[in-house]
Design brief:
CATH architecture of the largest domain: 3-Layer(aba) Sandwich
Radius of gyration: 25 Å
Largest sheet: 7 strands, mixed
Low-confidence stretches: 187-198, 467-473
Number of helices: 18
Structural class: alpha/beta
Mean pLDDT: 86
Number of domains: 2
Shape: globular
CATH class of the largest domain: Alpha Beta
Strand order of the largest sheet: 6-13-12-7-10-8-9
C-alpha cells in the first residue's frame, strides 16, 4: 500500500493557522481569563508572522496557551475537544489521497499532544511528528518546547533508507521543499484524484467534550468574549425564571428571552388502554433540561429519571427527579412505583450525545409498561454546550442560559401499539427488540444514526482508556 507523509495544517485540515486550536486549549483547559489573554496577544502574534518570524509567534502562542497547565488537562483537551474541530475542517481532497496508503505519517508544527488522538484514532495515522512540550517535575507545562530535532531529520530517521512514497504539504510552517525531497512523489506530482480507488471515510467523531461550539478564530473569539458579560447578566434573569416560574410560563418566557421551541406531533393523543400504569415518555438525551422542556409543553409536572445530574441541578429542578442506583432490580422497582403514581420521563441512553448519533438504549424501560411514547429531541445552541463530561457540572445551567438564542425541536411520536411492546397478553416482543425499535424510530425522525455505544463507552473513550473507536454505526 505504500507510505505517505502529510502536513496537518493547511493540508489534512483546511486552516493553515493553528491559532484557534490554541484558543480552545486556553479556554477548555484553563478558562475565560487565559482565553482573553491569548486573544489580546493575537495582533502581536500576527505581526510576527507578517515579519517572517512565524516560529517566534508560534512559540509565544504555545507559551501563553499552556504555561502552568498540568499535562493531564492539555492531554484531555487534545483527546476530547480538538478532534471535533479538526474533523469539521478536514480537507476531503487530501483525505482521498492520504487514505489510499498503508503507512501514514502526519507532521505538525503544533505540540504532538494536541493532534495525536485525532490523526491516530480518526485518520489511521501510525506516527505523529510534532513539537514536544517541556514539563517540570510536577507534570506542569512550562510553556517552552523541548529540542527534539527538526521535522525533516525526524521524518528521515523514521523512514531510514526507504523513502516515503508520497509527501503532501504546503509552504506553511516549515520548508516544504525539504519535506518533499524525502519522497518519491510530492503533492504536485501525485496521480489525479480520479486515479485513486474509492476512499474510505474517516472514523466519525461521536463523542467530544468542552463548552465552546464555535471555532474560535480571532473575530469569533472576540465576539464570544464580548458576549460573556452580557450572557452573565441574562443568566441572572433567566435562571430564576426556570426555577421559580410556573411551568406554563417557562415556554413563553423562554421565547421572549430568545429561546425557540418547535413542537411536532400531538403530545396528548393517546390510544385507549386498560393499564393502570402511567405513560412512559422515552426520549433521546441532548441536554439536562430535556425533561423540563417536555413538561412545559405538556403543562404538567412529570417526574424524570436522572443518571449523573449534578446535585445543584437536582436541588433546583422545577420538576420531580429521582436518581437511579444502577442496581437493575432496585431501579426497576423504583420506576414501577413511580409509574403507578402517574407519567414518567426517561432517557434510556443514560447520557447526552451532541452529534447526530443515538447511543444504545437500555432495555430496562421496555419491561416496565406497555404505554410508551417515543419523543425525539434536537437542540441547537449557538455559543456554549450546556453539558460537559468533566469539570464543573454545577455550571451547566449557567452555560445553558448564557446562550443568546437556542432552538429546541420536540417531536412526539405515536404511542407504541401493544403488539410492539413486551405485553405478554399479546405474545409481545423482547425488551431488547422494543429498545432497538424505539431507538430506530427516534433516529429516523431526527435523521440521526444508531450506534452500539453506551454511556460507559462514552466516558471510557473521552478518558482515553480505549484504543479503538471503530465499528460504531449500526
Amino acid at each position: 500500500m505504500g507510505s505517505v507523509v502529510a502536513e496537518l495544517e493547511g493540508t489534512i485540515v483546511t486552516d493553515p493557522d493553528p491559532f484557534p486550536y490554541f484558543m480552545l486549549i486556553a479556554f477548555e483547559a484553563s478558562g475565560p481569563i487565559r482565553f482573553c489573554l491569548l486573544l489580546l496577544f493575537w495582533p502581536l502574534i500576527r505581526f510576527l508572522h507578517l515579519l517572517g518570524m512565524g516560529d517566534v509567534g508560534l512559540r509565544l502562542t504555545i507559551f501563553i496557551a499552556v504555561a502552568g497547565l498540568p499535562i493531564s488537562e492539555i492531554e484531555y483537551v487534545g483527546r476530547a475537544v480538538l478532534p471535533k474541530f479538526y474533523m469539521d475542517h478536514l480537507n476531503m481532497d487530501s483525505w482521498k489521497v492520504y487514505s489510499q496508503y498503508g503507512k501514514r505519517v502526519v507532521v505538525t508544527k503544533t505540540p504532538r499532544v494536541m493532534v495525536e488522538r485525532f490523526v491516530k484514532e480518526h485518520l489511521g495515522a501510525e506516527e505523529v511528528i510534532g513539537s514536544e512540550l517541556q514539563l517540570n517535575r510536577f507534570g506542569y507545562a512550562t510553556g517552552l518546547v523541548r529540542d527534539v530535532g527538526s521535522i525533516m531529520d525526524r521524518v528521515d530517521k523514521l523512514f531510514g533508507n526507504e523513502n516515503p512514497c508520497l509527501c503532501l504539504g504546503t509552504s506553511v510552517g516549515f520548508d516544504s521543499g525539504t519535506l518533499t525531497s524525502l519522497c518519491e512523489e510530492n503533492s504536485h506530482t501525485h496521480k489525479p484524484l480520479e486515479d485513486y480507488h474509492k476512499h474510505n471515510h474517516p472514523t466519525p467523531v461521536i463523542f467530544h467534550d468542552g463548552r465552546l461550539i464555535k471555532y474560535p478564530k480571532p473575530m469569533t473569539a472576540l465576539l464570544i468574549m464580548l458576549w460573556f458579560p452580557i450572557g452573565l447578566m441574562l443568566a441572572i434573569i433567566r435562571i430564576p425564571m426556570f426555577i421559580f416560574f410556573p411551568l406554563s410560563t417557562i415556554w413563553y418566557g423562554s421565547m421572549i428571552m430568545g429561546h425557540r421551541v418547535i413542537v411536532k406531533g400531538d403530545p396528548k393523543r393517546r390510544p385507549p388502554s386498560s393499564s393502570s400504569s402511567g405513560v412512559l415518555f422515552v426520549c433521546n438525551h441532548r441536554t439536562f433540561v430535556d425533561p423540563v422542556v417536555i413538561c412545559s409543553i405538556l403543562n404538567k409536572k412529570i417526574a424524570t429519571v436522572t443518571y449523573s445530574l449534578s446535585s445543584f441541578c437536582e436541588t433546583f429542578a422545577p420538576i420531580p427527579t429521582f436518581r437511579l442506583t444502577r442496581i437493575r432490580e432496585l431501579d426497576q422497582e423504583r420506576i414501577k412505583r413511580e409509574l403507578s403514581k402517574g407519567d414518567l420521563i426517561m432517557c434510556p441512553e443514560g447520557t447526552t450525545c451532541r452529534e447526530p448519533f443515538l447511543l444504545r438504549f437500555s432495555s430496562m424501560f421496555a419491561q416496565l409498561t406497555d404505554q410508551i411514547v417515543p419523543v425525539a429531541i434536537n437542540f441547537k445552541p449557538p455559543f456554549f454546550h450546556p453539558t460537559t463530561a468533566r469539570g464543573w457540572k454545577n455550571l451547566d445551567p449557567l452555560f445553558f442560559v448564557m446562550n443568546p438564542t437556542m432552538e429546541y425541536e420536540i417531536t412526539f411520536l405515536n404511542q407504541l401499539s401493544v403488539e410492539s411492546t413486551c405485553s405478554n397478553d399479546n405474545g409481545g416482543k423482547t425488551s431488547y427488540e422494543v429498545a432497538n425499535h424505539v431507538q430506530r424510530l427516534l433516529a429516523e425522525t431526527l435523521n440521526f444514526e444508531c450506534t452500539h455505544f453506551t454511556r460507559k463507552d462514552k466516558y471510557r473513550l473521552l478518558a482515553g482508556n480505549d484504543g479503538t473507536i471503530s465499528h460504531t454505526v449500526i
